[in-house]
């Protein structure tokens, strides 16, 4: 120990500081020791337990100084040792050899770790145990914050995944097929006729089958709602003439007579042009001509509801008045509906030519 060869970082410490470190690490028999003896003892202890105290921030200066002291000579010895080896030895085998030597170095005695007993194999082991390399491995495990480019790339990937998922869910739901089928069904003159008739029937129902009180939905304080009374149609009116008389009158003027006339005065039955190589077809495009249906409905509605004609008592006068008041706009509303269906039938006939 007379050569005072130990770590330079420990040399910069005072004797009380070295004594405090020795007590902290549990070194025995340090009473009365000189500064150099304490430094050599601490250097030997920390070298043997480098993996244990490598992450201690108080000893960062020691390991940095030790790494610098062992850096250049070790590299030169390792290069000379590698040059003497056969060329067929792969780099991966060398790494594996270093890993196998590392545990042996941890179990070595302080005498075997002295510079005088160092061999090429021991020098390679020292290179593997270099604190600088261990520090770099520890730093590599620390997650670094993402760069703006990484964040933007992650957002783009997430957006693309969400867009693809929504698109696939929309395709699997069948909304497109249902919407196309609904459009094809409603894009006919017959559908328009049914819509107009349904609107009239809704207004007639409120007159001939009035609503009565059924029950009350209580208020929900959480939603801020109040009591809501529920009304349902009075089904007992189905047993009275006040329901059947207006209902049969509406069926007679809006459905029966127009359909009868539209079936026999079917203009589409004789207007289908013959095609090349095929005779004229005797099958009508519509069973009931929509234009004739609309014209007859407009005429009979004007006569019955506008002029009050009951066809010699066939229709009840009170039922005529009730229907005229029940339908939105009276008989003028019915005429408006027939005008719409008549124009639609003409437009459909033009498109078919």
TrEMBL record:
UniProt entry keywords in alphabetical sequence: Membrane, Transmembrane, Transmembrane helix
InterPro entries according to UniProt: Put_GTT3
TM ranges: 212-231, 243-265, 286-306, 326-347
Region (Disordered) location: 89-122
Keyword Transmembrane: yes
Biased composition (Low complexity): 108-122
GO cellular component labels: membrane
PANTHER family per the UniProt record, alphabetical: GLUTATHIONE TRANSFERASE 3 (PTHR41807)
Protein name as it appears in the record: Uncharacterized protein
Protein's organism: Fusarium solani (Filamentous fungus)
């Amino acid at each position: 120990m007379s050569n005072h060869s130990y770590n330079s970082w420990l040399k910069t410490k005072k004797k009380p500081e070295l004594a405090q470190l020795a007590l902290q690490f549990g070194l025995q028999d340090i009473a009365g020791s000189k500064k150099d003896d304490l430094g050599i003892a601490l250097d030997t202890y920390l070298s043997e337990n480098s993996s244990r105290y490598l992450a201690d921030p108080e000893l960062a200066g020691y390991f940095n100084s030790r790494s610098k002291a062992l850096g250049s000579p070790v590299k030169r010895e390792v290069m000379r040792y590698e040059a003497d080896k056969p060329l067929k030895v792969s780099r991966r085998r060398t790494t594996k050899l270093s890993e196998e030597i590392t545990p042996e170095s941890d179990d070595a005695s302080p005498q075997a770790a002295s510079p005088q007993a160092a061999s090429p194999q021991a020098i390679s082991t020292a290179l593997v145990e270099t604190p600088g390399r261990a520090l770099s491995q520890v730093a590599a495990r620390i997650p670094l914050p993402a760069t703006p480019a990484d964040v933007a790339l992650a957002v783009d990937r997430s957006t693309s995944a969400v867009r693809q998922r929504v698109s696939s869910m929309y395709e699997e739901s069948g909304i497109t097929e249902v919407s196309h089928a609904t459009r094809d069904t409603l894009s006919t003159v017959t559908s328009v006729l049914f819509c107009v008739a349904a609107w009239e029937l809704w207004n007639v129902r409120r007159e001939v089958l009035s609503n009565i009180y059924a029950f009350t939905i209580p208020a929900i304080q959480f939603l801020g709602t109040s009591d809501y009374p529920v009304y349902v149609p009075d089904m007992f009116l189905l047993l009275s003439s006040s329901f059947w008389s207006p209902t049969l009158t509406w069926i007679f003027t809006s459905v029966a007579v127009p359909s009868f006339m539209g079936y026999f005065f079917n203009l589409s039955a004789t207007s289908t042009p013959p095609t090349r190589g095929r005779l004229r077809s005797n099958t009508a495009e519509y069973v009931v001509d929509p234009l004739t249906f609309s014209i007859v409905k407009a005429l009979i509605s004007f006569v019955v509801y506008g002029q009050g004609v009951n066809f010699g008592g066939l229709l009840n006068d009170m039922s005529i008045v009730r229907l005229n008041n029940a339908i939105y706009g009276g008989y003028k509303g019915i005429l408006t509906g027939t005008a719409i269906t008549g124009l639609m039938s003409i437009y459909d006939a033009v498109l078919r030519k």
